[in-house]
Amino acid sequence: MTYYLDTNIISYYIKGSNSVEKRISELIWSGHTIKIPIIAYYEIRRGFLVIDAVKKLHVFEDLATLFGIQEMTANTFIIASEIYSDLAKKGQPIEDADIFIGASTLENNAILLTNNAGHLGRINNLKIEVIS
Known about the structure:
Elements: E1 2-5, H1 7-15, H2 18-29, E2 33-37, H3 38-50, H4 54-67, E3 69-70, H5 74-90, H6 96-107, E4 111-114, H7 117-120, E5 128-130
Parallel strand pairs: 1-2, 1-4, 2-3, 4-5
Helix pairs in contact: 3-4, 3-6, 5-6
């Protein structure tokens, strides 16, 4: 099975969260694939650049090299537009970045590791695993 890391999970991992480190280690040892969605990559990288966190940026780049970055495709944007439309009609919009991460996860039949079930749980058929 493939697991994607939400932006907040990457941040917790880099900060040394025991629960996040433990779960990711379990997944690796169980032979699962872990990927970083390109939007999460962008969000983390820009954050470290803004605060000049050079050491954390290097740790993150190593992590991205280890796990790999999941690119978006034209189909990702088709799925994302359907998610946006569905949530807008329900009056439950979420940020575009979350929609893109969710769409990429759905497109690739993956499970999203997150601590943001409140927003991402609104996306139909999205498989999430919450880590706190």
